[in-house]
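Dear colleagues,

I hope this message finds you well. In preparation for our joint manuscript, I am sending the Homoserine O-acetyltransferase (Gordonia asplenii) sequence together with its predicted structure, so that both groups work from identical material. I would be grateful if you could confirm receipt.
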Amino acid sequence: MPVNIPRDLPARAILEDEGIFVMSDERARSQDIRPMRIAILNLMPTKEATETQLLRVLGSTPLQVEVTLLHMASHASRNTAPEHLEAFYATFADVEDRYFDGMVVTGAPIELLDFEAVDYWPEMTQILDWSREHVYSTIHICWGAQAALYRHYGVPKYELPQKLSGVFDHRVLRPDSALLRGFDERFRAPHSRHTDVHAADIAATGAVDILATSDEAGVLLAATPDNRQVFITGHPEYDRDTLSREYRRDRDAGLGTAMPANYYPHHDETRTPVLNWRSHGVLLYANWLNHCVYQRVPFEQSGT
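The corresponding structure tokens are as follows:
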């Protein structure tokens, strides 16, 4: 079933070429069903690439999804054209009186900054606090997950000796979780970050369950028991070449970042990476949309 996005959004043509079912506002309004209203708070500098990644996994579900893209009003984006933001994005002020069935909060390449040193942290905390009353279920990704764990539960982040980058093996700890229905006992997912959260700190909150973890990469997936707050420290939505582009960017900037682990065949960066995490990434978002949002949210939502 379709994801409902603006006709002129650049991601639309890419997704249509891949066979992802997208729909116009006109066709959506002609159907006698209510779409899932999903907000995407896009904190990534390369917003168009992130839009495409997330819309791809959201558009691979059996539900109609109406997406609202959000950006930070208190931060000037240097990598996305102002015309793109003006045409396709809203700010928190535009939506603060609305209710959403779900929200996705992306990561951002700012893990080495203290949370309070991020220029949009006051706006970020406002949105995170608002989401607990105005969004039925929220997925937080990478830095977004660390920020939400810190804001809601006081969980700290820790700087890693070197950037964690690669595709890692994970094991399911809670096969009974709705988020992990249909998962293999072990599955792969990409990570790309400079900081970490510790399982012991998450467990100490008494409010968040750890659902999937890796011996190499640590906690991947955690959630509150009602799945209304979901935390993903990795990037199951990443494209085949995303880690490669990040690695080459860091290398060209002289940052000394190591080659992504378990990514290039035979650890040879001239070879095309094998895309071996997509199915579980799609399944994770499908489970979230179906079991944690669609099956539980009221038909007419005016509060949570």
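For the figure legend, we might mention the following. The mean pLDDT is 91. The chain has one domain: 3-294.

With kind regards,
E.M.
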